[in-house]
Amino acid sequence: MTPSLISPPLPISPHLSNSPLKLGVMASGSGSNMEAIARAIADGQLNANIQTIIYNNPDAGVVARANRLGIPAVLLNHREFESREALDLKIIQTLKQYQVEWVIMAGWMRRVTQVLIDAFPRRILNIHPSLLPSFPGVRAVEQALAAGVKFSGCTVHFVELEVDSGPIVIQAVVPVLPDDTPKTLQARIQVQEHRIFPAAISLAAAQADPEIQTC
Ligand code: GAR
Predict the structure, then answer these.
(1) Nearest CA to ligand 1 atom 6
(2) Whole-angstrom Cα distance, residue 70 to residue 83?
(3) Where does the chain have alpha helices with state H?
(4) What is the pTM of this model?
(5) Residue having the nearest C-alpha atom to atom 2 of ligand 1
(6) Opening angle at CA 83, ends 81 and 86, nearest 5
(7) pLDDT tens digit string along 39-51?
(8) Closest by alpha carbon to 158, among 129, 200, 96?
């Protein structure tokens, strides 16, 4: 039998505040993490609402998922902005328009600036497919395979200016198997991403507001 999970069960109960967390999701790709968060909300595991999804690639798969789930999706194509700061200002404006309180970077493949970070202090979470601080940046799964590590995983962390840095909220570990390809390892990691991201949002919100009960 192939072990797929090294991490223990998450000892985290739902965010229990009366008012749902207002999430804004930023995504560049397929959007499977966004959908996992939406599913956790629908299942009552996360007390939140996805107010809007911002995406930067016109053909990103996240759009079809957003349409199916009835979540408004806004295209902000980075190619049409003169600077990273200009894009971030438009992102902030859009997130505020949808009354977003927590920013969830779910496969957002652009560097963000201090402009965005300052607009949502300690309210921006990112997921990355490695055990940070190992293998930050692009092609993290390929980096792990090239390094020959025997374990890898995923990390949800608060966003700071340096790419894939910032305080860690939750990590999950998976084994790297001898015949793994980037595709098979990525798939094993994504199972864990979908599990820890909703839990990390709940935990981060509880830490930000001690009034919120977590157990
Ligand atoms: C996820 O594996 C996420 O960890 C990664 O992009 C993928 C998005 O998948 N993010 C990064 O590499 C950020 N540095 P999804 O579109 O299916 O959610």
Answers:
(1) 107
(2) 31
(3) 32-42, 62-69, 84-97, 114-119, 140-147, 182-208
(4) 0.92
(5) 129
(6) 70
(7) 999 999 999 999 9
(8) 200
